[in-house]
Amino acid sequence: MKELLSGYHALVCGASRGIGRATAHALATQGASVTLLARDAEKLARLECELPRLGSAQHHSLTADLDRTDTLPAQLDALRHPVHILVNNSGGPPGGPLLEATPEQFRRAFERLLIAAHLLTQAVVPDMRAAGYGRIINVISTSVREPIPGLGVSNTIRAACAGWAKTLARELAPHGVTINNILPGFTATARLASLFSARAADSGQPAAEVETVARAGVPAGRFAQAEEIAAAIAFLAAPTAAYITGVSLPVDGGRLHGI
Ligand SMILES: NC(=O)c1ccc[n+]([C@@H]2O[C@H](COP(=O)([O-])OP(=O)(O)OC[C@H]3O[C@@H](n4cnc5c(N)ncnc54)[C@H](OP(=O)(O)O)[C@@H]3O)[C@@H](O)[C@H]2O)c1
Predict the structure, then answer these.
(1) Tens digit of pLDDT for each residue in 63-77?
(2) Which residue, of 2, 140, 215, 254, is most buried by count of CB atoms within 10 Å of its CB?
(3) Which are the contacts of 71, defined by CB distance < 8 A and separation ≥ 6?
(4) Is 250 in the pocket of ligand 1 (CB under 6 A)?
(5) CA distance linking residue 169 with residue 137, whole number of Å
(6) pLDDT cut 70: percent of the chain above it
C-alpha cells in the first residue's frame, strides 16, 4: 500500500527530542524520507537508525545550530534531496519577567525562531515550487493568541513569527505551497519540565505544585504527548491538506479561552 507521504522528503528541525523527534517519527511512519536537524549529532544518528523506513524512504541527519544564522545557508547546501515538507521547530527562549529581559535575549530568540525559519524557507521554496508541492509547518505557541505570563520574550517573537507566516501564505499559495502554524499547549517534553522548574525556583513553590496548577487550567485534564502535536503536523503535511494555508492551529486540550 502506498503511504500518504511516500516519495516526499521532510526536513524536521529540532528533531533530536520532544515535538521535533515525535514529528520525524510521524512523517516517517507515513512513508516520508526525513532529514533530521538539531545540534546533537549523536542523538540524531541514533534516531536516524530508529525511524521506520517504508518503501524507498531514506533518512539523513544535518547537524546545525539555528542560532548561527550566519553559517546556516551554507550548511543547507548539504541537503541531499529537494525538500517537500519543512518543519520549523527549535528550542523556546527562557522565561522570566519581561521587564528584566535583555536586548541580547530578544536578538537571540529572533535569530533562532524567525531568521532561521526564514532562511530555511528561502532555501527550500524554489524546489517546492518546481515540484508544485510544499508544506511549511511552524511550531509556535498558543501565546500568539493569548500571551503566557512569564514568557515575555517568547510571546513577543512568536507573534512576529505568526505575522511572517501569514504574509508568506498569500505569496506561496499560487505555487502549491502551504504554510501553517501549530500552537502546542502544555506538552510533556524537556522544555516543559525546565519551564516548570524555573517557575518553581522563582516562586518558591514545589515543582509538583506548579505542574498541578498548570494541569488544572487544561480542560482535557492532562498535558499533551509530543506524538499528539506531531499528528497535527503530519495532517498539515499531507496532500489532503492542500487547501489549508495561513492558519494557526492550537493543539492545547481546550486551554485557550478565545474563539
Ligand atoms: N513543550 C511545550 O509545552 C511547548 C508548548 C508550546 C510551545 N512549545 C514550543 O515548541 C518548540 C518545541 O518544543 P519542545 O517541547 O519539543 O522543546 P525541547 O524538548 O526543548 O526540544 C527542542 C528541540 O530543538 C532543538 N534545538 C534547540 N535549540 C536549537 C538550536 N539553536 N539549533 C538547532 N536545534 C535546536 C533541540 O535539539 P538540540 O539541543 O540537539 O539542538 C531539540 O531537538 C519550542 O519552540 C517550544 O518553545 C513547546
Answers:
(1) 999 999 999 999 999
(2) 140
(3) 65
(4) no
(5) 11
(6) 100
The span from the CA of 23 to the CA of 228, in Å, is: 9
Q: Is the pTM of this model over 0.85?
A: yes
Q: Kindly state if the Cβ of 84 falls inside 6 Å of ligand 1.
A: no
DSSP code for 181: E
Nearest in space to 20 (alpha carbons), one of 230, 194, 190, 224: 230
* In the block, residue with C-alpha cell 522565561: 95
Question: In angstroms, what is the span from residue 190 Cα to ligand 1's centroid?
Answer: 8
Residues 6+ apart with CB under 8 A from 249: 180, 181, 182, 183, 232, 236
State the DSSP code for 74. Answer: H
Sign of CA dihedral 166, 170, 137, 122: negative
